[in-house]
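Extended Data, panel c. Modelled sequence:
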Amino acid sequence: MGEGELRTAHMVASVLLGYPDDRLYEARQLLAGAVAALPGGQVRERLSAFLDHAAVTAQADLAAHYVATFDLNRRCCPYLTYYAYGDTRKRGGALLRFKHALRAAGFEAADGELPDHVAVVCELSARGGVREARRLLQEHRAGLELLRAALEEERSPYADVVAAVAATLPPAGSREKEAALRLAAQGPPAEEVGLEPYAVKEAGR
C-alpha cells in the first residue's frame, strides 16, 4: 500500500473512529467511495464492513453504542498510552511525544482531545504525517492490539476499524505479541495521579 493509499485509509479510519454525528452520516457515500478505491485486502474489507454496518444502523443507535463502548468501558479505551501507563505520571511524558509529533506536522488536536486518541493519530497520517503516525502506532502496537481484542470480545463493529488500522502496519513481531500478552495479563498501572505533568509542561512549554 503506497503512501497515498495509507493516507486515505487513515483518513477514513479517523472519521469512523470519531463520534457518529451528522458529519459522519452525511459523508458515508464519500467514505465508501474512498475505501472502494483502496487495494484489495484486510484494510479495505474491514473499513467496508463498518460502513456496511453504519448504512443499516440508525445514527442514534450507533451513537449510543459509541458512548457505551468508548466512554463507559475502560477496556475499550481509544487512548493508546493508557494501556502502557494507565493514569500515572509517566503517561504525561508519553502524551508529550504525541503532541510534539502533531506539532511537527503542523497539526493540533481539537480542544479537549488528547493527542494519543487513535482517531487523532490516524488524522495525523491523513494530513501528511504518515511516517510520524506509523511510528507512534508501531510504538504502541500492544495497546492497539488490546483495543482491537477488547472490541472483538464486545462484538463491536468498531473492531473492524481498529483492525484496519492495525493492518496498515507491518505484521506484529514476537516482541509486540509478548508485550500485548503482558499488558493483557497485568492491566494498565493504577497510580491515580491524573495527567498533571502533561498539563504543567504544556503550560510552561
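Residues 86 and 190 are 6 Å apart (CA to CA). This feature is highlighted in the accompanying rendering.
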